[in-house]
Write a structure and sequence with these properties.
The complex is a heterodimer of chains A (239) and B (476). Chain A has 239 residues and is of the alpha/beta class. Chain A has one domain: Rossmann fold (3-Layer(aba) Sandwich), CATH 3.40.50.10420. Chain A contains 7 helices and 13 strands. A 6-stranded parallel sheet of chain A has the order 2-13-8-5-3-4, sandwiched between helices. Chain A has a 4-stranded mixed sheet with strand order 9-6-7-10. The two termini of chain A are 39 Å apart. A 6-stranded parallel sheet of chain B has the order 1-10-7-4-2-3, sandwiched between helices. In chain B, strands 8-5-6-9 form a 4-stranded mixed sheet, with helices on both faces. In chain B, strand 11 and strand 12 form a beta hairpin. In chain B, helix 3 crosses helix 12 and helix 19 crosses helix 20. The radius of gyration of chain B is 26 Å and the shape is globular. The chains are: A alpha/beta (239), B alpha/beta (476). Chains A and B meet through strand 1, helix 1, helix 6, helix 7 and strand 10 of A and helix 2, helix 3, helix 4, strand 1 and helix 8 of B.
Chain lengths: 239, 476
């Protein structure tokens, strides 16, 4: 459904007249910018270099990095969840978890271990939010991962709730090595390509770098304000 | 609160600031630590000047084509099912938002930090409707709980409070029983606010940057409060200053990177969130209804004038953190929610010279602000321009400057008077002088010597020294 636009013409006419000209009717061409400093960051870095940059920055933002392979992922994730004190766990509903061999951990092993597990399911509506709010660990998957700032990028969707990464006490992101790019520049370009290719940009794209924090009281860093207290990235080397 | 804070005059405000030694220590410490982090973060890039030039060219291009980009933005938001309202005045913005709130029968509103909603005094307007309005940024929350204490810094609003003061406020107002440890204080705020997010009817945010090409906008926080504000309530209202947009995601990325490096020395903060329209049909979280309110409130009057470049501002507060005057007088002295050099340029433009004519004089014109500005706003030149306008067009220099100039004019106009004055000065100042310093000056000197010493007039006048030197008699 198309939204309403109100009060626009007089508002924009006034802007044009302040600028001393008529309203622009032809599309403005995006300029060829004179400068492009963003292209010079981490140019020539190999995939392995970028992994090192990512790991080094994780230390600065209170984020744990675990490196594993597809074969070792189930054990590594189980270990990480136990380190955070176990369940309840909430995850997106995402086929990639199954492709990466996590079906058994989620649906069998955790119930044996007494770890409550909830998979986001849009058909049950707001119950998902209640469960995420009570969860100890939220687990999601990074679409692009920015080496420079140790940032995971998440796309929302019907089975990919936004709050899985915010409401639980701790947060784990799964990071395929192939998702790593130098910086936000590359992710922004890919998002723009989605749009230019006629695809829908997700309603919410989260760029997350470590746990929630604040320095609003005497500039002292406090980790864990409104979002998670702790964050772990599990880097999957052969994906 | 509206843009203007308090009813005291400029010198009363400055007097309070100067004598608040905790605040001055906190501001100096904050300037030093944030300043050092900023420097590290920008130097690490190796080509910061090129980034600044790029930031500037993006912002200038947007301002020159502002009507086009705002039209494109509104079309693309509508396509995604969002509503857009263009508000020329604070009244229009408040009326529209009140209407949305009333239609929803909303009782509770959660907000993430937004300067433009302060500017239009939105909270008070919604409270009049009987709505509970809750600020969720930790700093803003502290100020709100403390009977709406005004913010003193654009990025760190509660900078003027120490941890004991925060504890006392929480104890008195929220029944808090723990220590003044910031971690425990923040934990308490978390528990209080978590329930509010889950039960709020409407979420209200500001807008760091909107993206015209896709109808998106970005919010930048470290706490994650904006994410809960925009994913839990069923209705979302976002308020933006009309100049805060970029053409595409590619420019968004550049400006977000520059904003966070300049503001706090971070490569990126914990959360950058890019939102496009309301939630999609099958999404569970996210708003069902989305409204963007685009506010002019005096900005268009700045377009096409010699002050246009101030609209390039991305609200990083690097200029505030670099300013030697802000360091000593603190944020409340500016009498505006916009403090520091950017506040001294912007407040008179948005709020008029009646309330803010002194601010352009609260500067040494040292240029530190212009040097750190990520989008190359020539702030100190704009302060100088304000002074020219105030004196030449408005004919109203501040009283102190007028008196001084009048006295100097009178004294300097007649050689006899001048000779008499400069001869008299050492003895006239004698009662106030110790060790060649004046610490408690009389009359117009008082304002200066309240803050620092003034060198006592030399016992030997330059004219006498020169004459004596010519005669070969001078001692020095």
């Amino acid at each position: 459904m198309t939204g309403k636009i109100q009060n626009r013409e007089s508002f924009l006419n006034n802007i044009a007249s302040q600028l001393g000209r008529d309203r622009l009717k032809e599309p403005v061409k995006r300029p060829d910018w004179k400068y492009a400093p963003q292209d010079k960051v981490l140019t020539g870095a190999t995939e392995d270099d970028l992994v090192e940059v990512l790991k080094a920055h994780c230390e600065k933002i209170n984020t744990t990095v675990i490196t594993t392979t597809k074969a070792g992922l189930s054990d590594a994730l189980n270990e990480a969840v136990k380190n955070y004190g176990g369940g309840p766990v909430v995850t997106w509903k995402d086929e990639r978890f199954t492709h990466w061999g996590l079906h058994d951990l989620f649906n069998n092993e955790w119930s044996v271990q007494g770890i409550d597990y909830h998979e986001w399911d849009y058909t049950t509506g707001d119950d998902n939010i209640q469960l995420a709010e009570q969860a100890n660990v939220g687990i999601t998957i990074s679409e692009y991962t920015l080496a420079e700032s140790a940032t995971v990028v998440l796309f929302s969707g019907k089975d990919r709730g936004r709050t899985v990464s915010f409401l639980p006490k701790t947060y784990i992101a799964l990071v395929p090595k192939s998702s790593i790019v130098p910086r936000m520049t590359q992710a922004a370009r890919k998002m723009r390509e989605l749009h230019l290719d006629g695809k829908t940009v997700p309603a919410c794209v989260n760029f997350i770098s470590g746990p929630s924090n604040s320095a609003d009281i005497e500039l002292q860093l406090v980790v864990g304000v409104h979002g998670p207290f702790k964050a772990t990235y599990i880097l999957i080397d052969d994906l | 609160m509206p843009m203007k804070i308090g009813n005291e005059n400029f010198s009363e405000r400055v007097g309070k600031g100067i004598s608040n030694s905790f605040m001055r220590g906190a501001v100096a410490g904050a300037q030093d630590s944030i300043g050092a982090r900023r420097l590290l973060a920008v130097e690490e890039l190796g080509n910061w000047e090129e980034w600044r030039s790029h930031g500037e060219e993006i912002r200038q291009h947007v301002l020159e084509n502002l009507d086009y980009y705002l039209e494109q933005l509104s079309e693309n938001i509508a396509k995604r099912g969002g509503n857009v309202y263009f508000a020329a005045t604070p009244e229009e913005a408040n009326d529209y938002i009140r209407e949305v709130i009333q239609k929803k029968h909303a009782k509770k509103v959660v907000k993430s930090k937004s300067m433009v909603t302060e500017e239009i005094n939105l909270n008070a307007n919604l409270e009049e409707l009987g709505c509970e309005v809750i600020e969720t940024d930790l700093g803003e929350y502290i100020l709100q709980v403390d009977d709406h204490d005004p913010p003193s810094h654009i990025v760190a609003p509660a900078l003027h409070k120490n941890r004991e003061q925060v504890r006392d406020v929480f104890t008195e107002k929220l029944g808090y029983k723990k220590s003044s440890d910031p971690t425990e204080l923040a934990q308490h705020a978390r528990e209080m606010l978590r329930q509010d997010y889950l039960t709020a009817d409407v979420g209200i945010t500001g807008c760091n940057f909107a993206v015209a090409e896709t109808g998106s906008f970005a919010l930048v926080t470290n706490e994650g409060n904006a994410d809960l504000v925009t994913s839990l309530p069923k209705t979302q209202i976002t308020v933006m200053g009309m100049e805060r947009l970029v053409p595409t995601f590619e420019e968004l990325e550049v400006l977000v990177s520059m904003l966070t490096r300049s503001a706090v020395g971070q490569k990126l903060p914990s959360y950058v969130t890019v939102l496009t329209g309301p939630k999609e049909a099958q999404d569970v979280d996210g708003p069902e209804e989305f409204h963007l309110v685009i506010v002019d409130n005096g900005r268009s009057k700045i377009l096409g004038t010699e002050f246009q470049s101030v609209l390039q501002c991305i609200r990083c507060a690097a200029c505030v953190n670099a300013c030697p005057v802000y360091r000593h007088v603190g944020g409340h002295s500016y009498g505006s929610i916009y403090s520091g050099p950017i506040g001294a340029v912007l407040s008179p433009l948005l709020g008029g010279y009646d309330d803010y004519k002194e601010l352009p004089y609260a500067s040494t014109l040292c240029g530190a602000c212009s040097e750190v500005c990520p989008v190359k706003i020539p702030l100190h030149e704009l302060l100088h321009k304000h002074r020219q306008v105030i004196v030449e067009k408005e004919g109203r220099a501040p009283v102190s400057e007028k008196l001084l100039m009048k006295a100097f004019g009178l004294g300097a106009a007649s050689p006899t008077l001048y000779r008499w004055g400069s001869k008299l000065a050492p003895s006239a100042m004698n009662p106030f002088t110790s060790e060649d310093k004046i610490s408690k000056g009389p009359g117009p000197l008082k304002a200066w010597t309240d803050i620092r010493d003034f060198p006592a007039p030399n016992k030997e006048r330059f004219r006498d020294w020169y004459n004596n030197r010519e005669k070969g008699e001078s001692k020095s």
